[in-house]
Design goal:
The protein is of the alpha/beta class and 332 residues long. It has ten helices and 14 strands. Helix 3 (43-57) runs antiparallel to helix 4 and helix 4 crosses helix 5 (112-126).
Length: 332
């Protein structure tokens, strides 16, 4: 009887199912497997890297507490060593598969050439942290200046989703500039899953950037955003179309997303599309606007008020009649 309950009488069918699944590894049109001796980057390790970098960038807010001016240097040094070891390994995994130093495409178990590149790229990235901290300080200031509900910098750093999303974007953007494969997009998609804010690491974003609320914001790969720009929830800076070649394949590498100049405010639900679309300096884009062409500086773009119909409910509406009936009592 217990065998029927837990299904173990059918366990003998599992080898056949296994064979059918394995057969698809050579049959699918797109390979959905990675059967190589060198693994791909680890999402778990990458999260650890981002959390440790967050601890370096915002010490005392995340990670170890009770730091002071005497202990901070040792703490940051320890964190940097952790990031260095983890990031070297993940960059190595990311670049190892494309290594072509030998005719055998570097099939040795360890590639010293890839190790050297990974270490050099990691140091190059870590050297950018002071500059990135200054940039993030302007973003936190923009959040404080742009949100009258904020109680101070502590609240913003601890709780505003845009701070996490923008921090990870700025880190990922630097790795993207270094042409590190896989890791930048993995990082920003992690931020997307945590915050609902989707910023491609290829986008270019200036200082004093603030996303109020944030849920549903999408910023495409070739977007360019100037200084002191503020977005609200649900804003999309996307592509108008995807040009294709004579074979019907999408042409990559072109500017597909808009340019937002300095001092622009874009309200909730606005959609701005196209690589040739430029929003001029100092402009205000209203909520739910759909925009596919440029506007000059200091423009205000609004949708006309919709035609609303506001009528009183009938005196004896169904809701009211139901409300007037005595409650139904079911006998025990």
């Amino acid at each position: 009887m217990e065998g029927n309950v837990d299904g173990r009488r059918l366990k003998h069918q599992l080898p056949g199912i296994t064979n059918k699944i394995v057969a698809t590894y050579s049959q699918c049109q797109v390979p959905l497997h990675h059967l190589e001796p060198i693994p791909l980057p680890s999402r778990e390790n990458l999260v650890k890297i981002m959390e440790t970098l967050q601890e370096i960038i915002f010490p005392g807010y995340f990670g170890k507490k009770g730091l002071d001016s005497h202990s901070i240097k040792y703490h940051v040094g320890d964190c940097l060593e952790t990031v260095f070891e983890l990031l070297v390994a993940e960059i190595y995994r990311g670049i190892r598969h494309d290594c072509k130093m030998t005719e055998n495409h570097c099939h040795e178990s360890v590639c010293s050439h890839c190790e050297e590149i990974a270490e050099a790229q990691t140091i190059r990235f870590l050297e950018k942290i002071p500059i990135l901290r200054h940039a993030l300080a302007t973003d936190v200031r923009a959040a404080y200046d742009g949100d009258p509900a904020s109680k101070g910098y502590d609240e913003i750093i601890f709780s505003y989703p845009c701070v996490l999303a923008i921090m990870i974007y700025r880190l990922a953007h630097e790795l993207n500039l270094q042409n590190i494969p896989l890791l930048p997009r993995m990082m920003t998609e992690f931020a997307h899953s945590r915050t609902g804010i989707d910023i491609h690491p290829g986008a270019i974003i200036g200082h004093y950037f603030f996303i109020d609320h944030g849920t549903g914001v999408v910023i495409g790969e070739t977007t360019e955003i100037g200084q002191n720009v503020k977005l609200y929830q649900g804003v999309t800076l996307g592509a108008l179309s995807f040009p294709k070649d004579e074979m019907g394949r999408v042409i990559r590498g072109r500017k597909r997303h808009p340019t937002i100049e300095d001092d622009v405010v874009i309200y909730a639900g606005a959609t701005i599309l196209g690589g040739d679309t430029v929003i001029g300096k100092g402009s205000v884009i209203g909520g739910n606007v759909w925009l596919t062409h440029s506007v000059p500086p200091r423009s205000r773009v609004l949708i006309s008020d919709p035609q609303l119909s506001i009528d009183p409910l009938p005196t004896h509406s169904k809701v009211q009649r139901n409300a007037e009936k005595p409650p139904v009592v079911i006998p025990q």
